[in-house]
Amino acid sequence: MKILAVADEECKALWDYYTPDKLEGVELIIGCGDLSRHYLEYLATMAPVPVLYVHGNHDESYDTLPPQGVECIDDELYVYKGLRIVGLGGSCRYRTGAWQFTEAEMKKRVNRLRGKIDRHGGVDIVVTHAPLHGYGDLADLPHHGFTAFSTLLDRYHPQYLLHGHIHLNYGSTIPREHQYGSTRIINCYERVYLDAEPPIEKPRHRLFAGLWQK
To answer: How far apart are alpha carbons 43 and 137 in whole angstroms?
Structure first.
C-alpha cells in the first residue's frame, strides 16, 4: 500500500504547485502534526482516500475547530485494509499549553493503548509527533523525544514509527530515517512516500465435532 505521510510544513509541491501525479497511487494519507487545518482538508478533497492525523504541539486550535473530512487517531487504533495504525500526538512538555506531555503522562497513554493493540493482534504503524528518544530527537527540551514509545516497538515490532516535530531544515546532518530493531523510524517533515503491507493473516482453527479444522 502506498502511503503519503506529511508533517510540520505544508509541502508546496502538493499545495501551491499541485499536479495529479503527486497523489497518484496513494491509498492513505497520514499527518504527523503541526499542519494547517486547511491543508489537511485540502488533501482530503484532492485524494479520495482516508486522511488520518495526530496533534502536534502547535495544534491547540484543532480542539475547538478540528479539520473536517479527516480522522483524528490520537489514542486510538485505526484499521485500514488490514493495516493497524495507532496515534500518539504531542510533544514533551516545555511550556503551558495543550498537547504537551511529561514522560510519565506519555507512558500512561501508551499503556492505555496496549489493550486495543492486543485485541487486534498487534500494530503495524505507530504515528507520533515527537520522535522516539535517541532516534532523531534533539538535546533541547522542546525537541526531546519520548522513551515511552520503545514499549510499543519492543513488544509489537511495527513496520514503521512515523513522526514529525524535528524539521530537517534545522541542520544539514539531521537524518530522515533511523532503524530500531525491525522498525523503520521515519521523520515525515514536509512529505514522505512509503509502502506498507498488512500482516499475513494466519489461519484460524476451531474445534468442531471433536476435530480441529481450518
So the answer is: 27
| pLDDT tens track for 172-209 | 889 999 999 999 999 999 999 999 999 876 555 444 33
Q: What single DSSP character describes residue 132?
A: B
Specify whether the CB–CB gap between 190 and 164 falls below 8 A.
no
CATH topology of domain 2-213: Purple Acid Phosphatase; chain A, domain 2 (3.60.21)
Enumerate residues 6+ apart whose C-beta is below 8 A from 42: 15
> Torsion-angle region of residue 180: left (phi > 0), alpha (psi -120 to 50) or beta?
beta
- Beta strand 2-6 with 192-195 is antiparallel
Residue 188 to residue 167: CA distance in whole angstroms? 9
What is the dihedral sign for C-alpha 7, 11, 16, 22?
Answer: negative
Q: What is the pLDDT of residues 62-109, one digit of tens each?
A: 989 999 999 999 999 999 999 999 999 999 999 998 999 999 999 999
Indicate the domain borders of the chain: 2-213
What pTM was estimated for this model as a whole? 0.92
Closest CA to 149 of 141, 167, 137: 137
Spatial distance between the Cα atoms of 133 and 80, rounded to a whole number of angstroms: 28
Cβ-Cβ contacts under 8 Å for 187 (sequence gap 6 or more)? 7, 131, 136, 163, 164, 166, 168, 174, 175, 176, 177
Length, in residues, of the chain: 214
